[in-house]
Amino acid sequence: MKKKLLAMALVAAMTVSMAACGGSSSAPAADNSGSEAATEEAATEEAATEEAAAPAEGAMKIGISMPTQSLERWNRDGQYLDEQFKAAGYETILTYSDNQSDRQVNDIQNMIAEGVNLLIVAAIDGEALNTAMNEAAEQNIPVISYDRLILNDAVSYYVSFDNYTVGKLQGEFVRDTLDLDNAGDKVYNIEFTAGDPADNNAGYFFNGAFDTLSPYIESGVLNVVSGQTDFDSVATDQWSTDTALERAQNILGSYYADGTQLDVWLCSNDSTALGVAQAITSDYAGSNSVIITGQDGDEANLKNIVDGIQTMTVYKNVANEAIVTMGLAEAMLKGETIDASLCDTFGIECAYDTESYQTSEGNKCPSFLLVPSVITKDNLQELVDTGLYTMGEDGYLAATK
Length: 401
Known about the structure:
The chain is an alpha/beta fold and 401 residues long. The chain folds into two domains: 2-31 and 39-161 and 317-369, Rossmann fold (3-Layer(aba) Sandwich); 163-295, Response regulator (Rossmann fold, 3-Layer(aba) Sandwich). It is 43% helix and 16% strand. It has 14 helices and 17 strands. The strands form five sheets. A seven-stranded mixed sheet has the order 2-1-3-4-5-14-11, sandwiched between helices. Strands 7-6-8-9 form a four-stranded parallel sheet, sandwiched between helices. A two-stranded antiparallel ribbon has the order 10-15.
């Protein structure tokens, strides 16, 4: 309950600060086209809110670098982080780099030139930011690697979800739904779609799922008809829906056109699941319902879950990820001791991990890992209870803005 209340409080804080501010230096300005019709009293209240939300003179400056606006989840991450820091009185610079690593390097370099006190970076490519990270280190600017690990020792801390567990949850869902432990002579056909090879998390997601299901593949209970079981074969550049769609269509045309039944398509996230679902809807010759997994809780995928097209998604509450990132950043800027006890101050379930992730060989990166959850048609209300989604009369969910 405490976790849910914090998430709801964040939404409330965001609503206030968004009304008061025109956004970060890279975000579009707020639409004030109706302001002329506002009453004098409303204008006065708005001005007071702006004054309260504006960063104090000499406020510390936070640089927030997100990978792209083409995926719904990164818009949410950027928004939550930006508004959370603004509400706390910080000045922010928020950029999106259109999935272009060179542009992200340039964006971060510009933030360094503008004198940021701390950087929060969700990398497009965890191995492509060395120039910018080295410059940050030279300027003694601490770096929080956000959601995706940057493979550079300038990174101070890593904040993410337990990425291996994300895949593990998907694999366990398949195992339990099909009751694989009691399958007997039954054989189920499965295909895999993984994420972007440049995203360090993609391997964790895939391995968590594949490690969970590999015993059943080895025993013959699960059969990968295409034979594509290694990460490189099933990876999807930039998590592209269109790329996932095209590959799924090719697999269905090559291996399932003769009526072979497909039982499961394990997708590492929602954007790839969207492409796979589209291919199955239009190109699959079978009549059975196919289990499709995902991750992120994107609106289009939640609609597919309601409609019975996608089966589940692993939900990562990015509002909570922003809360943890904010708490960690403040502790860093204040020079406070950072250890496992900091998790207790967040009011959010997380673990302090100093062993699992490393930015280079032998250099382990201390990490704060949040806990993801499985969402199906049966427990969509859990998303509504966070305050981050609303449910319409048609049963479809919409993210609150």
